[in-house]
């Protein structure tokens, strides 16, 4: 059985009207929504409306109701003021990106200390129907506003696995832990696809990114345990920033630890960054994780980190993300 959060369905908005004036208006509003065939159900001072009727209702409520006392929510989330609904409706285009799979992958090389290619990080790039690229920040902002972050993360993960089959190196694939309800259900399709493509599980490294902060460490541990059980490796991104305690890192037991680029860039001349780089390296080696420095842009920083003992390196110094066919 699939996860509902991974499926793009038409949104339904639950509306709540407060105040005597607004409640008096409701009978006329309900009748109008019935005529327009956009009403899903109504009860008391609340009703559920299809997305196709939302902009019409917003315009009406702005003109004829006490707008500040009309609220909405999606799927039992918190009630929000109606002014915030416009952004959600205007970002409807993200549904098409997801449903039509308008995503491709670029690859950025990850090198060894000897400057040999060890792996590639696969990075999602999104497309308009005419083939032009959409800025990633715009994509994830729109997806989050419509509650589509889960479906988008799944699309990116599955697409990256397909592209990994084209490579002869390891592939680092980002994922957002909070997008996964249950590892057994949400990640089953990822594992099945990798098997269908004949990928060696050791070729895939799933990288935890902090686009969404992880508050439930036990949930994250269950996800990583599932990946490990299936033979995959995993990496922690932004070490030195979000995973700053040794105790937490020991609990998660990553195969790879990526030093955050903010501590990489300029490290050759910055004493404070050097201390963090040393501490992160010690933590990685203590746990048997491979230390990786990301965001390397200068030869000086690369040489300093290599001399310190970092084993893998990623950054513009070695290559920018590029289409797969240009990268291997």
From TrEMBL:
PANTHER family linked to this entry: BLUE LIGHT- AND TEMPERATURE-REGULATED ANTIREPRESSOR BLUF, CYCLIC DI-GMP PHOSPHODIESTERASE PDEF
Top-level taxon: Bacteria
Domain EAL residues, every copy: 87-328
SMART domains for this protein: EAL
InterPro entries in the cross-refs: Cyclic-di-GMP_PDE-like (IPR050706), EAL_dom (IPR001633), EAL_sf (IPR035919)
Spans through the membrane: none
Name of the protein described by the UniProt record: EAL domain, c-di-GMP-specific phosphodiesterase class I (Or its enzymatically inactive variant)
């Amino acid at each position: 059985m699939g996860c509902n959060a991974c499926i793009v369905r038409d949104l339904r908005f639950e509306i709540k009207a407060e105040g005597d004036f607004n409640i008096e208006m409701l009978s006329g509003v309900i009748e109008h929504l019935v005529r327009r065939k956009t009403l899903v159900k109504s009860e008391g001072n609340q009703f559920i409306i299809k997305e196709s009727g939302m902009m019409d209702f917003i315009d009406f409520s702005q003109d004829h109701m006490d707008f500040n006392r009309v609220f909405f929510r999606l799927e039992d989330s918190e009630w929000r003021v109606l002014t915030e609904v416009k952004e959600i409706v205007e970002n409807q285009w993200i549904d098409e990106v997801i449903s039509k799979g308008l995503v491709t992958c670029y690859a950025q090389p990850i090198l060894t200390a000897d400057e040999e290619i060890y792996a590639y990080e696969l990075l999602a790039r999104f497309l308009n129907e005419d083939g032009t690229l959409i800025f990633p920040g715009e994509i994830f902002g729109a997806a989050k506003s419509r509650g589509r972050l889960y479906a988008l993360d799944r699309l990116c993960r599955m697409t990256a696995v397909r592209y990994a089959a084209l490579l002869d190196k390891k592939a680092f694939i980002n994922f957002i832990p909070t997008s996964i309800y249950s590892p057994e259900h949400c990640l089953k399709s990822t594992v099945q696809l990798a098997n269908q493509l004949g990928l060696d599980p050791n070729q895939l490294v799933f990288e935890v990114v902090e686009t969404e902060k992880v508050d439930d460490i036990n949930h994250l541990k269950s996800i990583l345990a599932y990946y490990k059980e299936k033979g995959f490796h995993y990496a922690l991104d932004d070490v030195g920033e979000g995973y700053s305690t040794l105790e937490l890192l020991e609990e998660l037991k990553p195969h790879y630890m990526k030093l955050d680029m903010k501590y990489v860039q300029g490290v050759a001349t910055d004493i404070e960054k050097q201390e963090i780089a040393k501490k992160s390296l010690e933590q990685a080696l203590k746990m048997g994780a491979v230390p990786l420095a990301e965001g390397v842009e200068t030869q000086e920083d690369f040489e300093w980190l290599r001399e310190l003992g970092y084993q893998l390196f990623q950054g513009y110094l070695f290559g920018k993300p590029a289409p797969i066919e240009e990268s291997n």
